[in-house]
Amino acid sequence: MKLANKLDRYPAKMVSKLANRLVQRYASKADSVLDPFCGSGAILVAASQAGLPVAGIDLNPISKLFCRVKIRGFDPCRALKLGRAWIAEAQKPIKPLPVDWDRKDYWFTQGTLRKFEQLRAASKIIPLRDSPEGSAVLLSYVLAVRLCSRADQHSPKPFISQQARHSRTGRHFDPNRIIIELLTQLSTLYGSDRNENARFRFVYADVCNPHRQFDDLGKHSHAITSPPYINAQDYFRNFKLELHMLEDILPFKVSNLRERFVGTERGRLLERVSHESIERGFALIPELERLVISAPRLCAVVHRYLYDMSNAFDVIKQTLKHRACLVIVCGDNLVGGVRIRTWKVLHTILEEKGFILFDRFSDRISDRLLPPVRLGHKGLIKEEIVSAYRLDNPKRR
Ligand SMILES: C[S@@+](CC[C@H](N)C(=O)[O-])C[C@H]1O[C@@H](n2cnc3c(N)ncnc32)[C@H](O)[C@@H]1O
Questions:
Q1: Which residues are bridge partners to 357 per DSSP?
Q2: Which H or E run includes 207?
Q3: Rg (Cα) of the chain, in Å, rounded?
Q4: Total-model pTM
Q5: 94 assigned to some structural domain
Q6: Residue where a domain terminates, one of 175, 191, 207
Q7: Quick one: what percent of the chain has pLDDT higher than 70?
Q8: Quick one: 218 and 323 in the same domain?
Q9: Residue minimizing CA distance to atom 12 of ligand 1
Q10: How confident is the model at residue 241 (pLDDT cuts 50, 70, 90)?
């Protein structure tokens, strides 16, 4: 079992002890396991190590790099050769591929940025997308981004603290050197555990989009997931440096995902949320009547969350077999001073959609081997509730 370390950091990452426990308890006889909010892949890794075929969905393209490297592993020699070839190509006289972001000069020195932009251009010549080794090289690139920036290195969210301003401003960080160092470390962690036969599929997509079909992922006997909390993690902000630097290397657009992470506070929150869904939100959480007066924007965040999660459950249902098992790990939220029992609200929505609860237990944060530091929860989250459902009536909506 790999312990979390600085190479495997992800906001709200599930500890591997819990992921293993969930797979053993609910999915030991599974045909396959889906995690529709798979993040850094804790559940998928646990299930894959138990010999099960796995499938993941996540809106964050970086999630795929984590999952692929951790599940499939890679050949360290080939990865180093590929990484060095990429860097050598970037050092030739090559026209940089600019990062399309007006804040880039705030985070990086000119010299660092130029090297990144040359690497971006070289990614069009050296193929990195399709092989396990290419994923390892790209993950090293992603991990190098924050290390090469002016951001405080201790904060989970990128920001420039006074100390960072003092110690990092004007310093040149060389991505070419740091990428190779990170790749070497990744090789030690994951390069030896190659499992080319691991059956793993991944789609990066918005799982709340009711029009998105996931036929390519097949049907699964089990789904185990920890969905985002309301307004607790700003996944876009957490990854904004990395996503801007990765845009155009992988096929995604930052503008298409920045407002689509579940639980977001960004953008026009209620644009697509139906009147019916808002009414339902007030009925599910009567405290919202208070919140809509004291903090209308936060109230909109909650309505949007409920709308998104309801859609996500419909989409997840389509990917499940008859009598499939769905396991959700979720706790409470504190939004604008109002305590919301998010796990209970999700339970009500799931029951309405034909899921029948058959098991539940509480996982206390203080009992975890590595209690996660969760900014934004203000110490409210003392436990997470694990709820296991059987899909009784796939037709119900
Ligand atoms: C609580 S984290 C999951 C962490 C994961 N269990 C792990 O161990 O790393 C929730 C995940 O949901 C993803 N997510 C948020 N909104 C999404 C959306 N609309 N569609 C798909 N994934 C989304 C985030 O990118 C994040 O990775």
A1: 389
A2: none
A3: 21
A4: 0.93
A5: yes
A6: 191
A7: 93
A8: yes
A9: 37
A10: very high
How many whole angstroms from 186 Cα to the centroid of ligand 1? 23
Looking at the structure, tell me whether residues 220 and 155 fall in a common domain.
no
> Are the beta carbons of 164 and 150 closer than 8 angstroms?
yes
Residues spanned by the domain of 149? 76-191
| Phi (first) and psi of residue 224, to 5 degrees | -130, 130
Is the shortest distance between the CB of 58 and ligand 1 below 6 Å? yes
**What average pLDDT does range 194-213 have in this prediction?**
89
The residue with greater pLDDT, 20 or 164, is 20
Tell me the two tokens of residue 18.
């819990």
Position 235 pLDDT exceeds 50: yes
**pLDDT average, residue stretch 33-49:** 97
Whose CA is closest to 82, among 126, 43, 121, 38?
126
Q: How far is the CA of 215 from the centre of ligand 1 (A)?
A: 20
The residue whose CA has the least distance to atom 27 of ligand 1 is: 39
CB of 191 shorter than 6 A to ligand 1? no
State if residue 120 touches ligand 1 by the CB under 6 angstroms criterion. Answer: no
How many domains is the chain partitioned into structurally?
2
> Pocket of ligand 1, candidates 203, 261, 329: which has the most ligand atoms within 8 Å of its Cβ, to mutate?
261
pLDDT beyond 60 at 373: no
**42 part of a folded domain:** yes
- CA–centroid distance, 194 to ligand 1, in Å, is 25
